[in-house]
Design goal:
mainly alpha; 0% strand; 23 helices; 499 residues
């Protein structure tokens, strides 16, 4: 791989990786989940799982992408074994299925950014804001913004590694600056100290509540990008002497810093301006919080329209940078299969537009896909952990994570963390499935067409998994390559200075 096909510097690498990790979930989901689960108590569990889920998986993806120099299917085929190409296909497909509706979400941010700048968003009452949202979501206008969003993502990816770097150099510093400005404004509001106290003061007894730990683990699974395959796809372009251990910690803590700033911004504003509506705000869901209640909060703040524009600009930057990574991953898989980069990106763009239209036109379909493939990420994390276990946890750490020329090496604690990730993924899968069991009876739980139940997950997962397993021999032949990567790591190499 030539230097033109690698990231140009550590700075560029980290900006690109942060662009992948920081998405709408950091800004619209974290404040809501933290507010619903005890604030300070949730933060403790959230940091614990940053170290026991996110960073271990980030290191796995860095190592697999750097070693194989190909996307998830090729990486699983070459490093885990040809019998497990279908696992890489699942990882790639799940992230791509999310891309189909994530471009719709980016389209929403575009519409609301435009509305906040032009004054088109009603800010005087929740009823008016709800009517405005319902008139837009599920309309042909939403299809148009979906197409525009996807076009912006394809435009960046079509410029190659350097194009992705250039976009990240603008989007990520801009995003951090906007979130810092918004958080600083929020903490200066009269009464904001109540929000800070809530967010940073733990109730120690709440840590005995298993739900808080499960929600904290879920938030790490959804907002760092660990286990999605996106980090793996970008790791293809790592420089040979890149210090992936340091990068993993910077990425994990950098991503969560944005979430924390977003939590300060939203919760301090809510406590200062509408404390009586706190339960309604945090219980409104991602779309309700963002597109109905956020305008109400800014409407009551001096200079609110300007700060609302900043908010939706930050949300747009976050969505765009993450969508770029999803398009790159899907394109990488097609390139690994032998397609030219230009044709692969065009194919992904066209498929993304057509398969994203149902989510743009129907909120019920959008919610169904978000539920099915969002939970599917837990299975992706499980497959990554399984891959390491099959390869040999200590062997993987010594030969793929640690290198003799690395600045930092990772110690044996990571071995136990990977085993724990495998267990955590199983627990999350069981817990989320249990959340979808309906009180209305067996049929309501297993009907395949509901937005939120067990049946719709099982049916769609079964179709995808059956197809990938059936196609495994073909996938293995197509993505095995010359197996140079596999041969290069057959003999474990010891490293010194392990922490």
């Amino acid at each position: 791989m030539t230097e033109k096909l690698r990231f140009s510097s550590r700075w560029s690498t980290m900006l690109v990786m942060l662009g992948m990790a920081v998405g709408t979930g950091n800004i619209w989901r974290f404040p809501r989940v933290a507010g619903s689960n005890g604030g300070g108590s949730f933060l403790i569990a959230w940091v614990v799982f940053l170290l026991l889920w996110s960073i271990p998986l980030i290191l796995v993806e860095f190592a697999m992408g750097r070693e194989s120099r190909c996307g998830p299917i090729g990486a699983f085929t070459r490093l885990v074994g040809e019998k497990f190409a279908w696992m890489g296909a699942w990882v790639a497909f799940t992230a791509t299925a999310i891309m189909f509706y994530y471009s719709v979400v980016m389209g929403w941010t575009l519409r609301y950014l435009w509305g906040s700048v032009t004054g088109g968003i009603p800010m005087h009452s929740p009823e008016a804001a709800t009517a405005y949202w319902q008139g837009f979501a599920g309309s042909w206008t939403a299809v148009g913004t979906h197409a525009l969003a996807l076009g912006l993502g394809v435009l960046v990816v079509s410029r190659g590694v350097r194009g992705i770097e250039r976009a990240a150099r603008v989007l990520i510093p801009g995003l951090f600056l906007l979130v810092i400005v918004l958080a600083a404004r929020a903490v200066t509001l009269p009464g904001a100290e109540r929000g800070l106290a809530f967010l940073f003061t733990p109730e120690w007894g709440d840590l005995l509540d298993a739900r808080i730990w499960l929600e904290a683990l879920t938030q790490n699974a959804w907002d760092t990008g660990a286990g999605w395959g996106l980090i793996l796809a970008y790791a293809v372009y790592l420089r040979p002497k890149e210090d992936t251990t340091l990068n993993a910690f910077v990425l994990g803590f950098g991503n969560n810093s944005v979430s924390l700033l977003a939590g300060i911004m939203v919760l301090c504003t809510a406590f200062a301006i509408l404390p009586e509506a706190g339960d309604q705000i945090v219980g409104a869901g991602n779309e309700g919080l963002t597109f109905i209640w956020v305008p109400q909060l800014f409407a009551r703040m001096p200079g609110g329209r300007l700060f609302m524009s900043f908010f939706f600009l930050a949300l747009f930057f976050a969505a765009w940078s993450s969508l770029i990574a999803m398009i790159e991953l899907a394109s990488r898989v097609l390139i690994d299969a032998g397609m030219t980069r230009v044709r692969a990106i065009r194919t992904v763009g066209l498929a993304g537009f057509l398969l994203g239209m149902p989510s743009a036109l129907s909120m019920e379909f959008f919610q169904n896909q978000d539920w099915v493939w969002g939970v599917g990420l837990m299975l992706s994390g499980l497959f990554f952990a399984f891959g390491v276990l099959r390869y040999g946890v200590d062997r993987f750490r010594r030969t793929l994570v640690n290198r003799a020329d690395r600045d930092l090496t990772i110690g044996r604690w990571w071995n136990a963390a990977i085993v724990l990730v495998f267990v955590e993924a199983l627990v999350l899968l069981g817990w989320w499935m249990s959340q979808a069991v309906s009180d209305a009876g067996l049929w309501a739980t297993f009907t395949p067409f509901s937005s939120f139940n067990v049946g719709t997950v099982l049916v769609q997962w079964a179709i995808a998994l059956a197809a990938f397993i059936a196609l495994n021999p073909l996938l293995a032949r197509k993505f095995a390559g010359d197996n140079d990567a596999q041969q290069a790591v057959e003999a474990p190499e010891a490293t010194e200075g392990e922490a």
